[in-house]
Amino acid sequence: MTDTTTHHRICPLCEACCGLEIKVQSGKVISIRGHEADVFSAGYICPKGVALKDLHEDPDRLRTPLIKRNGVFEEASWDEAYAEIERRLPPLMAQHGRNATAVVVGNPSAHKIGLLTYFGKLARALGTKNVFSASTLDQMPKQLASGLMFGHWLSVALPDISRTDYLLVLGANPLVSNGSMWTVPDFRGKAKALQARGGKLVVIDPRRTETAAVADAHHFIRPNSDVFLLAAMVHTLFAEGLVQLGTVADWVNGVTEVQQAVASFTPEAVAARCGISADTIRTLTRELAAAPRAAVYARIGTCTQEYGTLASWLVDVLNTLTGNLDRAGGALFAKSAAFASNTAGKPGVGKGVTTGRHHARVSGAPEVYGELPITCMAEEIETPGEGQIRALFTVATNPVLSSPNGPRLAKALDTLDFMVSMDIYLNETTRHADVILPGVSPLEDFHYDVAFPQLSWRNHARYSPPVLPAAPGQPEEWQTLLKLAAIAQGKGASIDANALDDAQFAEDAQRLFGAHAEAVIAATQGLKGPQRTLEVALRSGPYGDQFGRKPDGLTLAKVQASNATGGIDLGELQPRIPEMLRTPSGKVELAPPSLLQDLQRAKQDLRGLAPDLVIIGRRDVRTNNSWMHNLPVLAKGPFRCTALVNPADATRLGLTDGALATIHSGPRSVRAQVHVSTEMMPGVVSLPHGWGHDAHGAQLRVAAERPGANINALLDDQLRDPLSGNAVLGGVAITMQAAAA
Question: Which of 688, 618, 680 is nearest to 649 (CA)?
Answer without folding.
Answer: 680
